């Protein structure tokens, strides 16, 4: 059987197996071809430095998906990945070589050069993969077919990013746009020729879906080689200028291998390269191409990989969007569609969806008929997906999402044996520790950082980043003495298990920065509450992770938009505003953050009034906290935005990460910020409008109304007469006493006593209300009042008590004293008015002669209980001026009822308030 | 019962010519001709050039049916107008479903062209879209199985002549495509009548000791609305007999603007409104607002917004624009202005006065207010919602 094919395959030298990277069909074909040809050596497209690592493939602990990670020794951030899945033809070739004890070698350009190349050509780097913010590059792409699409993805991903990032992307890719016109996607051309609109499907139909049982295992490779040959004749290198160099290197290695192993050498490489390897060139010409390539010292190791990362939609994409499906195709011995749909049915059943065998039967029928309608030889992923949706999923995409997540992509995690070389993250950490002169010590020590200095700022960022990564080397401690934002205190302690944590975190990236960024992005997506996300945003700023910020911001914006609870929004705002301020202190570009904060504030403004209606007392109390927090935050926010607008002309931001990339963003971002600030200048006004709405709406709980009035008064937005009017309204007899007490709590609660000390009119209002509370209601409102007044500073309480004791002053005297119509308590008791009571008293006491018992200048406090004094005199005195504040007849009062502010203040008083005792007693 | 008697008069016997419906309804007088009449030329051109295998009793091959719905140009230059603007996949799955003799269930919110697609599918597959059962809360079992001509029944006793077949029964006997509109509105017990028909492809007539077995070519297209109130969910037994295709709302804003403009033009003509609406700006704006609120995300993909409780379908956008057009014609200067559509939008968006109002205000403040060139619209909306 072999005899007929063998000569054909070897008519022109070595066995060249052109493949589609990560194509299960190719992988199967490669295995069959290798089994048939039994080569003496296997050459694989990949970095030759990894030759030594090939033997690890024999280790049962090395389980794909794994990736070869190459990184520059001095600069772990410069790295490249070569992922391998179980169904990758390269992996199959490696395994075949290891199993058959045949030498295997990588023949692509050494990573030494490819890594250095990236340095040289940054940022207009050749490959189309999306670049990470920190300058970390994607894996050197092994597949010609993936490049164009990859680039598209990269661009669209960056477009989704925030403003600064976008501007940068535009600059970085400007030169590339022209390049792309020249570039060809070889498979797109072939597919178009075959009448397919999607090259992916063409490849699947023509190559991947061919079973291995064809008569000639080499036929597909020959056909593909011919096709690629025709393409390359027409398009040359197709704009992949680096390919020429890589291919020259491959040819040199191939020549060397042929010298060593003879013609029984097999090469597994991307189909695109096959014609070039077949081409006849001179050694000298190839050498010339390779001359003068830049070099960096590179190190390689195996790292575990996941299906998710292989998938197109995540970071280091290998360009395949359905690794799970490919894995299935690779493993299924026969009837792939039936098996696949059965798998899907099982998955859906596990998730409690009713899916019977009848469903599977119908789905298979539908998939096959669909394939026929679309003219495809076998149902592909599209057909099976359509069938699953129509038959098993009731037309809904929800179960499909599950199928896509669990099966089409899959949750496979690779494993790497212990013997694999160390993770670069460790190296990077060690390097940074050296650079920042921050030695890991087992002994606990305290570290004071002044963030204005570069080294200290760097240290702070490193510690924050490590904290994000779960490496708890330093714990932030409260700064002593200084509360300034440029000071930080840390407690450092390096424990041995932290090394393990670092190794674990190695999965997130190769440098501390990259890893922390990846972790922050992942955390943001997984965060449960809005406040968690804002806290994360704050951390990102502290840790100097501008690259993670767009993701966090996006999640934040999403969460904020979906979170209907104003309370959550209000909780989230302060941290956000705080981050804004810190961001400014540290020179981070916080334009995006400001946008989100302003948006959040707007949403709170809109949502707050309805959310404040019909609350019970607990909820109202909670809401009051939110209102206070938002008030503070809005103040800070307005300040920050205005400040930003003022400084917008100068690009103040120094790039904390030290990478060149984010420097581009400042120009446009600064302009945008100025515009934004102008538009948001009225934030404070809008907030005041919201407070106004709150203060006048009857359905809003009393404590909130009181609070709103107070905030407006403090802002100078409400004149004190207006505040007095509102207070009078809230305290008028029509209001239930409990509600009125809540109003007072809101108005003067939480240490707002000084206001009462200074504005006697308000004190007078409170006082007169209090004395007007009916006896039955008094006990109800007492706890609330006690809570309100007990929170005051002793000094304030004392002053209040004294004021009350002095009693309401003469209106004329008050006017003279304050120079304005500010009614309240005069310095002296108004004896003239107090005397008016005497006739009644006399009557009650049964004294005969009114004239006898009327000594002028007699202190009314001596003969009248103070409570009675004010309860009766005050309203009487005020009645002519403020008749709108209806008061009941003094004569109806119980003269001994303890109903005055002074009384309450006394009851709340502590031992140092003894001087007040005289007032109440 | 009324539906039954109507069909009984037009086709009293179970055997009915499979040609087009009675010819006396000339299309000039009919308000709305059937799909197979309106597009007869396209159908015959397709049939003439269709050389692919056709399933039994199909007028066209599945491929040609898909072309008929999605539009295209035939080799001889005949242009087939697209009947459905949307993902190709949906029509392909629908046609394939019919070819595999599985029943087809078209799901979707109101205004997504379910009925339209089902009519054209039936017209293309069987050349007859009139075998229709309209589902209502009062649809009786007879509407799906068969009824009796009581005069005949009393005069001659139970016989095949006294039987009044339902459209479904006729479709079974003749290998045609039957349609059930608003399946979920039909009471659950009546719905389940379909189970035997769909799984065993037979309809027993116990009164006569007979049965009607479906011949090849029979199939059933049902439409249903999954988001409405007062619907009867399908039993899982029945659901299992259907392949479900969900008709989505238009994918891109341009497609939707296109659909809205076209429909508004058609409706406007019949209302004697100006033929070409001058307010493409406003149409685009209405469509944008509807889409953003519906999708919960702004068109630039940068801001999330909340979705109100209404469905905000394309059909509603059409009605808002038509309304605005009427306003501007009769009370304005004939040009569609922001003020003309603002009230309509408010009415369409705010269905639940409490929750939707907040959502709408939030949208106004966070999205509309900031948008360049939308100031007039913002003001108009503020005015009507104040």
Task: Give a brief outline of the structure.
The complex is a heterodimer of chains A (921) and B (386). Chain A is mainly alpha-helical and 921 residues long.
Report on the structure:
Chain A is mainly α and about 900 residues long. Chain A folds into 5 domains: about 1-185 and about 215-310, no CATH class; about 330-410; about 420-525, no CATH class; about 530-650 and about 670-720; about 735-920, no CATH class. Chain A is built from 44 helices and 10 strands. In chain A, strands 1-6-2-5 form a 4-stranded parallel sheet, with helices on both faces. In chain A, helix 23 (about 510-525) runs antiparallel to helix 24 (about 530-540) and helix 27 (about 590-610) packs parallel to helix 29. The termini of chain A are far apart. Mean pLDDT of chain A is about 70; it is low at about 1-10, about 120-185, about 315, about 645-680, about 810-825 and about 850-920. Chain B is α/β, with parallel strands linked by helices. Chain B folds into 2 domains: about 1-245, Rossmann fold; about 255-385. Chain B has 18 helices and 11 strands. Chain B has helices spanning about 1-10, 35-40, 40-50, 60-70, 90-100, 115-125, 140-145, 150-155, 165-175, 190, 195-200, 235-240, 255-270, 280-295, 315-330, 340-350, 355-370, 375-385, and strands spanning about 70-75, 80, 105, 130-135, 145-150, 165, 175-180, 200-205, 210-215, 220-225, 240-245. A 5-stranded parallel sheet of chain B has the order 4-7-10-3-11. A two-stranded antiparallel ribbon of chain B has the order 1-2. In chain B, strand 8 and strand 9 (about 210-215) form a beta hairpin. The longest helix of chain B is centred in the C-terminal third of the chain and has 18 residues, at about 255-270. Chain B is globular. Chain B starts with a helix and ends with a helix. The relative contact order of chain B is 0.10. The interface of A and B includes residues 359, 391, 395 and 607 of A.
